[in-house]
Write a structure and sequence with these properties.
443 residues; alpha+beta; 11 helices
Length: 443
């Protein structure tokens, strides 16, 4: 029997993706491990491999189709001895992926749809199921006509082979009192049992009307931008943020960094201030283990290793690659790993396991001259450290005298469900101590 090739879930959080490019065509023979297609997720473009051997009998989803849901049939694989004539229903269960092409298709009248072949679309209508979840066998044309007429296929007896519902069965049927299964479902209640949905802001039409007559360019949202919008909206609406701020004196660290870089120059290693911040944060999570935690819906998970995520800006968005066991790695090892992760992030070549996980994140905008800012927590992390630039300022030293020092301002955003105020203060104090006394990080 022909086998459906389904849209893969290339990461634990992937719900849909773009089928960027087919690497095979209909009629090609494939073996397990052969590359079939390139799939764009919200973060990266990844290659999809065959798990079985056979012949590509039919491609169901065209290259370039966006919004293809996970587990949607995208192609049909034929086994030895099978032909395209055996495909039948195997090619008719894929829901249509969202595509700009679909919106451009002209709408036909019901009579035209009933008396002529079904118009070509980006994908067939989903196969219906009966009340027990069993599949109802119906021709693609019968399903389209039934949907247009508001008919429930579960109430129609098929006259075709093996009870299959065909065009004539649907044309002769009358709508029943029960609503069709494709009718819109009631909106789900908002999470948390609140009295109403979260405010959504003005609609697209309202915003377009507001700027009618003004010159502008519409920018289409790609998968990454949609994911950033969804996750950060979720974060600000559901995470009870609070913020802790400290100024850090960097002079000892800058001097120590300069000395180390001179000694490491022969090895081609150059440590950045950010490398020290990663190390300081990782060690702080070990010193304050109760803060090394994430929110897991109905519980808190306390992690043993210090897995620190670092925000990396790329064109059109950002990645947060994770440096695992950062407390156990040397500064030079962290520096090399961070450079590698950042380079591959900018090329969108990171694997999902390289940017998922961690309990704590760092976002550094100091290189852009930003003095301080508040970062949004990336769920399920318990906190994120926002780092500003190092600026020379007059301060009062321990002897009560005024001197010039390099001061870096940081803000720790904390999830109050995971970390209370005093615990967050302890974590930030430990980070400050590590950075103001850098030799401690090597002990």
């Amino acid at each position: 029997m022909p086998t459906e090739i389904l849209m893969p879930a290339l990461s634990p959080t992937m719900e849909e993706g773009t089928l960027a490019k087919w690497l095979v065509k209909e009629g090609d023979a494939v073996s397990s491990g052969d590359l079939l297609a390139e799939i764009e997720t919200d973060k990266a473009t990844m290659e999809f491999e065959a798990v079985d051997e056979g012949v590509i009998g039919k491609i169901l989803v065209e290259a370039g189709s966006e919004g293809v849901k996970v587990n949607t049939p995208i192609a049909v694989l034929l086994e030895e001895g099978e032909s395209a004539d055996d495909i039948g229903e195997a090619s008719s269960g894929a829901p249509a992926p969202s595509s700009d092409k679909a919106d451009a298709a002209p709408k036909a009248t019901e009579e035209a749809k009933a008396d002529s072949p079904a118009p070509k679309s980006t994908g067939p209508i989903p196969a219906p199921k009966d009340d027990k979840g069993g599949r109802i066998f119906a021709s693609p044309l019968a399903r389209r006509i039934a949907k247009d007429k508001g008919l429930d296929l579960a109430q129609i007896k098929g006259s075709g082979p093996k009870g299959r519902i065909v065009k004539a069965d649907v044309l002769d049927a009358k709508p029943s009192a029960a609503p069709a299964k494709d009718d819109a479902k009631p909106a789900a209640a908002p999470a948390g049992g609140g009295g109403g949905a979260m405010p959504a802001g003005p609609s697209t039409d309202a915003v377009l009307k507001m700027y009618e007559g003004r010159e502008f360019e519409e920018v289409k949202l790609d998968g990454m931008r949609k994911t950033i919008a969804a996750r950060l909206t979720e974060a600000k609406q559901t995470i009870p943020h609070f913020y802790l701020r400290r100024d850090i004196k960097l002079d000892a660290l800058m001097k120590f960094r300069s000395q180390l870089n001179k000694q490491l120059e022969a090895r081609g290693v150059k440590l950045s201030v950010n490398d020290f911040i990663i190390k300081a944060s990782a060690l702080a999570l070990q010193a304050v283990p109760d803060a090394n935690a994430v929110w897991a819906g109905d519980r808190v998970l306390k992690l043993k290793p210090s897995d620190v995520a670092v925000a990396v800006a790329i064109e059109g968005g950002l990645f947060t690659p994770v440096l695992k066991d950062a407390d156990m790695k040397s500064l030079s090892a962290l520096s090399a790993e961070m450079k590698d992760l950042a380079a591959r992030a900018r090329d969108r070549k990171l694997a999902p396991h390289e940017y998922q996980g961690g309990s704590f994140a760092i976002s550094n905008l100091g290189m852009f001259g930003i003095d301080n800012f508040d970062a949004v927590i990336n769920p399920p992390h318990g906190g994120i450290l926002a780092v500003g630039s190092g600026v020379k300022k007059p301060i009062v030293n321990a002897e009560g005298e005024i001197e010039v020092a390099t001061i870096m301002s940081v803000t720790l955003s904390v999830d109050h469900r995971v970390i209370d105020g005093a615990l967050g203060a302890q974590l930030l104090e430990q980070i400050v101590q590590n950075l103001e006394n850098p030799m401690m990080m090597l002990a």
